[in-house]
Amino acid sequence: MGVCRRRRGSVRKHEVVHDANPTAPEQLIRAVGLVRFEDRRLLLVRADYQAAFYLPGGKIDPGETEVQALHREVREELGVGLRGADFFGRYVTDAVGQGDGVQVELSCYTGELDGIPEPAAEIAELAWCTREEYAAHEVTAPAIVALFADLDGGFNGEQRAGSH
């Protein structure tokens, strides 16, 4: 299946990502993800073609803003609408299952779901995981590991998880 194993130290977190990066990856995938964190559990999904769980969301289509892509992806993957979208953070890391030299720039947003999420489209499974439960999976996404650290410890020392 060609999934990437977790590598320590391969995550960079940004408030702003600059285009002029002398160490740019061979390929950069721009994506958005929804952060729903309740009772120390993060809402995660697994596509039928992936081994790793990741945030509901996906690639940003040409001409779409991050927020437009997030609303579209949440509707497609969870079958519910999304109210609001507040920027949480941005992670640049190796892309799971995409091969060597491919990185993902994951822009994370919080928001409220309109309804009960159910797996839809290519989503095979939906789960609410604690940091420990996620770490126990055989394959994990480096950006999600870093996100859990921020959620458990507060993002940039300013916001506590659940106060977004």
From TrEMBL:
One Pfam family named in its UniProt record: NUDIX
Domain of life from the UniProt record: Bacteria
Keywords of the record: Hydrolase
Cofactor(s) the protein needs: Mg(2+)
Cross-referenced SUPFAM superfamilies: Nudix
A single MF term (Gene Ontology): hydrolase activity
Domain Nudix hydrolase: 27-151
PROSITE patterns associated with the record: NUDIX, NUDIX_BOX
Family stated for the protein in its record: Belongs to the Nudix hydrolase family.
Name the UniProt record assigns to this protein: ADP-ribose pyrophosphatase YjhB (NUDIX family)
Lineage: Bacteria, Bacillati, Actinomycetota, Actinomycetes, Pseudonocardiales
